[in-house]
Amino acid sequence: MSTHVAAESHVDPIEAAARDFAALPPDRPVRLAKRTSNLFRHGDARNGVREGLDLSAFRGVFELDTEAGTARVGGLTTYEELVDALLPRGFVPLVVPQLRTITIGGAVTGLGIEASSFRNGLPHESVREMRVLTGGRDGRGEVVTATPDNEHAELFRTFPNSYGSLGYVLDLVIELEAASPFVALRHVRFDSVETLADAVGLVMRTGAWDGHRVDFVDGVVFGAQESYLTLAHWTDHLEGQSAPSDYTGDRIYYRSIQERRTDLLTAHDYLWRWDTDWFWCSRAFGAQHPLVRRLWPKRKLRSDVYWKIVAFEQRHGVMAAIDAKRGRPPRERVIQDVEIPLDRTAEFLTWFLRTVPIEPVWVCPIQLRRPPASETEPSGIQAAGGDPTDHEGPPWPLYPMEADVPYVNVGFWSSVEIQPGAQHGDVNRAIEAKVTELGGHKSLYSDAYYDEATFARLYGGEAGTAAKRRYDPHERFPTLYEKAVQAR
Is 82 inside a domain boundary? Predict the structure, then answer.
């Protein structure tokens, strides 16, 4: 992977991408060929190489400007590849999602979040420019360059959370932040979700805890009376430890949260602390059993390996068939991340812990960084055709978090038994209803059950429709509703 590629060598892949798009059958929806996926939608469990548009040329760090703290990167670059290229040079993306094989294009067209999100927002907020392969006016593909204030500012604003319904990002210019060799951690326990939420508010307002700077904050709720915030900061020193901790082998990171008050990791291991055991989900595969752990190859302790096991089960239903033969009830998958306004977070957690038999759950504070465009509406939007977007509304209309409101992401990833008289999807629908009642939204990487009118109200409405008319008038890509709810 090269961190410096001459501009001339990067023109051909863009031309080739547009040419390959034009050669695709016009009567079939365009799909992206990828080797990995982090989606959990029923009917969309495909893994491995699949037929579709091959954009694998757009992987890598093409340009790195250390003075400006920016990089031009390919949209198909995984965050593992980004970290491997940038961290040795003292930089990381502003937000590094928890799983190694998430691509930066996926985190922008979907959503990404991590412990730096309380100060750095979402990955798409660090994008300065992106080149997007759209459907084009004639349906044969067109590459456009979108920035916050050029003639394609409408696409820049509506692309986040569009999940490939408006096109595919080929490359992006992103902001970076300086990284230190180590990250020092402090695990603080709380005896109620109310005091946890209060502490989150204090850290988000002040950027500090007990007189110490906080660069990262996330937490784990193990139960109504046991939860933790992990407050961390960059550091150049070991800060009292003889060596950094290592949770990539026999030791398991999430268990250390209950066992230790302070800790220290290398920057690399901190960024992937959750990936090794897919948070705590590797226990479902026996990977946390001491005997299995010793036999499991260390290089296979990673989220994409576990995902392949899940994808195999979704395709073949081996364990579901075994459970049925043993007389066990069927199970409903409940894999979701939801954003709840901070002032309603304790209420949501209390309801969830009483209603849904899943523990632990992850919490991660988040607040939008800034509006993506200048204060004045770019003159090119209306002149270029299509309906003008409402710049007085949410800055990212397909996931309309308010710019001045602190939120907490709550993540829960498991399954529950379908109770007698209940139907598959009931638990997920109840969660969707509660999230909406509390003024939140949920991410769309997993199963969704909204009717079309409710979905439009929650995820972009006319702003998304206008962008679709302008950038994909021939509907070469499935709509957002088709992708997120109908899993087409």
Answer: yes
